[in-house]
Amino acid sequence: MIKTVFAIAVSFFLSKLHGQAAEPKLKITHLTGDYYIYTTYNTYEGNKIPANGMYLVTEDGVALFDSPWDTTQFQPLLDSIQLKHNKNVTICIATHWHEDRTAGLEYYSKKGIKTYTTELTDQLSKKNNLKRAEYLIKKDTLFHVGQYSFETYYPGKGHTEDNIVLWFNKEKFFMEDV
Q1: Contact 117, 125 (CB under 8 A)
Q2: Exposure pattern of 38-56 as b/e (b: 16+ CB <10 Å)?
Q3: Which candidate, 80, 95, 118, 169, has a CA 20 to 30 Å from the CA of 176?
Q4: 68-100, pLDDT tens digit by residue?
Q5: Domain 22-175, what architecture?
Q6: pTM score
Q7: Exposed, middle or buried: residue 114 (CB in 10 Å: 0-12, 13-18, 19+)?
Q8: CA distance linking residue 174 with residue 94, whole number of Å
């Protein structure tokens, strides 16, 4: 009897040891230099879907590009950035109107973070009853955050009719949504 109980206990322990770990709700991956990709997850049409955003660590704070769409990840993302880099997020730019880009805009504005979208993104967010930014980008705009500069650029309709591309000239790369 003792051998049977012991065997069951060992089997249970080993199954837990080798079982699949739950996928994290927030994942941060180093891209290059001061650039990081963050991934959050939400459920869409019954499926767990990842959404990627990016952030840039500067001497004057962190520039966040897009926001999580899972409301439970707005603050954990800020906390993770603060813990990892000892910096606060100072600006957030949403690249188009879908909820996986704009859901955290009002939350971040209330935290004192300057939030931006284009005028077209704002119109579409309003029309679709989604969160809106505090500031509007009226044309292609050059931003300076700390020692970095980047440009918002509207190339025309793509993934959405309002999507913008972020161009990082010094690094010679861009961020676009696909």
Answers
A1: yes
A2: bbbbbeeeeeeeebbbbbb
A3: 80
A4: 988 999 999 999 999 999 999 999 999 999 999
A5: 4-Layer Sandwich (3.60)
A6: 0.85
A7: middle
A8: 15
